Structures
1.
Amino acid sequence: MDRQNVIIDYENKLGSGAFCNVHKGKIKGPANVRAVCPSLIAVQRFTDCEVAIKLLPPFADDIARSDFAQEINFMKSLHYHPHLVSMLGYVPDARNPLLLVEYCAKGDLLHFIRNHRTEIEHVSDITKFA
């Protein structure tokens, strides 16, 4: 994607990983994933939409840059699936590459499950006797 079409909200950090930070952001215009999955749903959902943006911290070393490039290449090899968080595009900047993925408004799956444990257990108990 063109860097000019990506807006990063540096004040809204969603998390961090082994070698990246994740911030909330937005893309202007269509996401690149539409070329891979031109369905009506993708066209509607992935235009002018919120995204999670993975980026390297300023102090990232060559190993972190290599790991990040491998992650981007791996994500490019995966096909879009409506039940997985998918890559929407990337910005191939040599110094500051960006990986754009679907934004999950309810947070990451681990914290969602932990926060809703009692509800999930209750549903599980009901289905045991159905």
2.
Amino acid sequence: MKRFIESNDRMQGTLFPEYLEDYVAEDNPVRVVDVFVEHLDLGKLGFYRAEPAITGRPSYHPSILLKLYIYGYLNRIQSSRRLEKETQRNVELMWLLGRLTPDFKTIARFRKENGKAIRKVCSQFVFLCRQLNLFSEAMVAIDGSKFKAVNNRDRNYTANKVARRREQIETSIGRYLSALETADLLEPDIAEAKTERLQEKITKLKQQMEQLDSIEIQLQETPDKQISLTDPDARSMATSGRGTGMVGYNVQVAVDTKHHLIVGHDRNQLTNMAKQARDAMAATELHVVADRGYFSSLEILKCQEAGITPTMPKPATSGAKADGRFGRDHFVYHPEQNEYSCPAGERLKWRYSRIEGNLTMHRYWSSACQQCALKAKCTPSKNRRVGRWEHEEVLEAMQKRLDQSPEACGYADRPLNILLAP
């Protein structure tokens, strides 16, 4: 094959074999993993078997398995079996683990036994980033991300799933009973064997029916009417694919906007996540951006009271704008008079206050709406009424920040994409 780059002969021996070190570049991320894990006090962090047993078969040092776990996390290799294969063919892992090849059961057991210790390693990594001044900008983006659970979809139950499964079992039992009736027409030895086999299937289906009855009782006692048998905390969630879904966790993640580092993760609300991020970064002040899915008046107020500055767009839910009429932003509030002015120049005066959805709301309207020339563009009702939350100034200040910093919209709309960007 002339005029082509020629490969080496597989049977060609080499006088001086290459070192594994030659295959891993100086800037390869596995070197960071190696140095980071080597400087951890695994015994203090609570890793199981950090000290070798006096008797028995030697085990893998936790640092080896932790390096493998972190490498799998960074390269999106979650399966223990896949990690086992990678140790046998992946040059980076050969270098990182010193050619050790733990089997998948050892890898799975390491994860199971050291869950709390691994979480402490995450805290140590955040502490290291803080020492390196990687959190110099006190600004994080918060968003949710779906993580698949071990729980299979068939082991997740809702009221509808139980009803469908019960219907399927009843249909199967009916089909087997019908087959039993026709079995008598066969020869005696064949009929006996078939009858025994069908009876076993019917017995199993009846046991499944009893299990469904038990699950249905448990469903009534759960707040969200959903049960996962393998991972109790996992929930069935819709995905982007039409008619598809997954059983998993919707984890909230706080990401540093400068270096794209995860500084906190949980399954709680905006304020709790923001506080975790502030504590992890050891920041006295913190700016948080999120998408409109996190918009909650009370959560925004809690952030403000905690010294955290939130920025997020407000959901567009104006029915008036959708119908081509004046939206809420066409009405200007005057704090000195506690009144609103409308596009026609009329004043909407305060009328009353009441509690609506745990919020104290004030209501304003004008008596001049009936004679207004712009009424058709404003409201089909007798008066155009405007509601105002008692802490509306907090939301107005946030909207002003968003208007003055358009770049924050990019973080607010796609915070987790920032993490994945090169």
